[in-house]
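Researcher: Structure for this, please.
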Amino acid sequence: MGMNETPSGERPHIGFFGRRNAGKSSVVNAVTGQSAALVSPVKGTTTDPVRKAMELLPLGPVLIIDTPGVDDEGELGELRVKRAREVLDQADAAVLVVDAVLGKNARDEEISRLCQERGIPCIVAYNKSDLLSSIPSGNAQEIYVSALRGDNIKVLKEKIAFMLQFDEKKFRIVGDLLKPSDFVVLVTPIDKAAPKGRLILPQQQTIRDILEADAAALVVKEFELKDALQTLGKKPSMVITDSQVFAKVSADTPVDVPLTSFSILMARHKGFLDAAVRGVKTLDELQDGDPVLICEGCTHHRQCDDIGTVKLPRWIRQYSGKKPQFSFVSGSEFPENPGAYRLIVHCGGCMLNARELRRRSLKAGGAKVPMTNYGVLIAFMQGILKRSLSIFPHLLAELEE
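Model: Predicted structure, token format:
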């Protein structure tokens, strides 16, 4: 990903679904204006979801996902269908591509039903309209297109954009909590785990959101914070820190200055902070042998003191005085049966879209398994969670229940 590209986790995800040979990949290529997906008359050419980032005007950056046919057959075909359905859990909107000559069948109706159950807006694109002698009159959620001739592709793109009219304030990281001319101090440790030559994604995104609020951002390392606050001559509107140095930053930040972490803000941004605060109290109930799942939304090279696989298990054992059994997943992995775990601890989810994070949280909740996140957990263990949530007063009551 280029330095100025919108991260995939921040792009609305648009899934294209349908039977084999309905022309999904051809429609995707027509919509993106590129050969993003392989096209062939042979059924089942698309074997894995294919993702393509693009600008969809007037909406902005989106992620287009071409999926395998939902009618694939055989043992391998079943796996492909499973992957296609997994995309539904990530999709903010869906395009069901139907062969206009053959019309819908039970598999197509099932996709429509699943979209409705999940609250995913869906439009039906009848492809190969160039083979029809006349175009039937559809409704607002249907459109007849020809990927071959480009008929109605522009209208299809407009309909997709219309389905994705987001309330931007709902998805802010911190900008809605700031006023123009406010300034915020960001604490970003630069150690062996930090990526070379750049800040990590949540830090980049937070800085951008602060600037979009017409506020100012000052970035320091943890050992520079105390001197920086004294040099500034006035108190910042907020201090935001990497969770791994929460304790030191809390000690160096005046008690009347709001303090939180990138991870806590990302949990809010992705829509599962409330659940994370409720779930963290389970830490006080852990027993020896309790299964704990630690999830990371991205895949990366593990450092010798990796936070997910090394630091968090160590800190949890030290805090609880117990010896839970830890399991680890990353990327798109998430258990079909989260009920097997006593607690799930998730990263901030900067590489996952909000729908996927909320789906995981709801899936855990449906199995009656508490789910929290890195920043909330670390602040709780260090006794500073109340302070870290002071900018969200409604959440303080959760800790008292």
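Researcher: Any notable elements?
Model: The first strand starts at residue 13 and ends at 18. Confidence is low (pLDDT under 50) at residues 42-46.
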